[in-house]
Specification:
Strand content: 15-25%
Oligomer: single chain
Helix content: 25-40%
Bound molecules: adenosine-5'-triphosphate, magnesium ion
Radius of gyration: 19 Å
Length: 290
Amino acid sequence: MFRKRSQTTALADQPTETSEPGGGFPQLSMPSPLRLTAQNVTQVFGGRGKQPVVALENFSLDVEPGELVAIVGPSGCGKTTLLHAFAGLIKPTAGEIRVGGQQLKSPRRDVSMMFQAPTLLPWKTVLGNCLLPRELEHRIDEDDRKRARELLTWAGLGDFTDRRPHELSGGMQQRVAICRALMANPSVLLLDEPFGALDAMTREQMNVDLRRMWAASGVTTVLITHDISEAVYLAGRVVVLSPRPGRILEIIDVPLPKDRDVSLIQSPEFAQTCGHIRSYFIREDRHAGV
Ligand SMILES: Nc1ncnc2c1ncn2[C@@H]1O[C@H](COP(=O)(O)OP(=O)(O)OP(=O)(O)O)[C@@H](O)[C@H]1O
Ligand SMILES: [Mg+2]
């Protein structure tokens, strides 16, 4: 499903060679990556007359500092709920989340989440949207602007910094959202199906670029995806969740080297790992909805 970069033609939304994404990742002053831990996390929604919904059950995971872990599971099994708990947006019904060893009680500036929809502010330019995390801290300076421009150039958007979101394609908006998440200088990056709305070709290129970005920045990353190949290509470990209530079925160590060339996707190890994960969801006698 992936193509070698040298075989990739310029994407329609990249007008010049110089703005092709995936170039050198800008030297950002990323803080040290932090360990992210979920311990026996259970999330129940409802109550007060409503039928309770157990979204997530007894979920435990230890993400090493600088690791990229992917989470796959059927629709409705609690993946977004888990990411919201990692972001401190909800307090789990039971269990706890720790960031860098500290119990998470509310959102932290150094834990950055990219939502499935790009959620850009329509009245702000691409540069203004990218600078938003800094603006919320009331301290945009020339360094911030320089850094935002570098990130946007890396993401292939160097020629679009003054445009508004409605002038961009869906894929370009998602790239702005990734740049914005990185502008927060996160110690932990949470990505909820970041490429879910993209066409297959743009998505494949974004995967290659995301892997490079992660390798260059070393940020602790949790990625949710419905795409098993994407999970295996990007992650060091893949967590497979059951249908709701989401429980861990298996945590798979991806048998690919850390320094990952895109040609590895043609390897037997890649195919076997994808096949193993797929076997959890594809049954002859039922439809699991992955
Ligand atoms: N705020 C909420 N209030 C009530 N129920 C909720 C809330 N958020 C999620 N749920 C329920 O929790 C379950 C898990 O939802 P969640 O969004 O985490 O699933 P998901 O795995 O991300 O699904 P998808 O792959 O479709 O995005 C669903 O049954 C959903 O209806
Ligand atoms: Mg979701």
